[in-house]
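Async update (no meeting this week)

Hi team, since we skipped the sync, here's where things stand on the single-chain job. The sequence we agreed to prioritize is pasted below, unchanged from the tracker. I ran it this morning and attached the output directly underneath so nobody has to dig for it. Comments welcome in thread, and please keep replies under the output.
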Amino acid sequence: MQLVEHPRGSYRFLTGIAPYSSGVIAMPDYEIVHVVLHPMLPYQAGFEMVDRFLAEVGRPRQALCAIQLRSPRPLSFEGFAAFNESYQVLLQKWDLWVDGLNPIARTNIVPAIRPPTEPSLFAFAYTRPTRDSDSVPTFIVAGAGDLVEQRLSPDAIVRAGETSVDALREKAATVMATMQARLDGLQVGWADVTTVDVYTIHILQPHLTATILGVMRPSTLHDVHWFYSRPPIIDVEFEMDMRGVRHEIRLPTTR
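Output:
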């Protein structure tokens, strides 16, 4: 992973794979703001709302740096790849790529209860100028599932098909190692994290204390937010994302 500047977006991004980057961090004199849509919108309509919002606050499209999606059901690796192709076309139309690299961090999750009927935009993040430039830079760590080296391949799933306590502990440990690597890549630490999101339908308690909280250490002051949901790919059982921000907005999508 490499940290690459995105001058038009006023942030740097940690390289990932074609569908998404591994994370983003604001450049000096800017901050990242996290915005939750209420209620969420089909993602094409959601992007149109993001476009209007950015215009209203005087920021370019390139200030968009992260999104969170919600999907109807987990997909096969082939289905996930097909969705990613159409998604990447949208980002390219927005002129968001940097030297052939996708800078946008992303999380894609399937709610276990009342999932949307089509892929929907749940939240996004953007950069804006700040006078609080002496504080720790704000950042987003993209979602990561229990995949070895985050490869999008069936043979990369950690203990595929297993959901025992021991298997889930190993899956969680794999994801935590990815979170640590991305924090290191962004040049921040657990003490800088303000929100930790965990996505799984499985009980967290058996591996919460040692595997998750034990690694988080200082950021346990902010707790863990558990979303009763599934990762976007069949047989992937555990996913996380994180952020360190000072401002969060709840944006109404109905008038």
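Quick observations from my side:
The mean pLDDT is 93.
Residues 7 and 27 are 9 Å apart (CA to CA).
Reply here if anything looks off.
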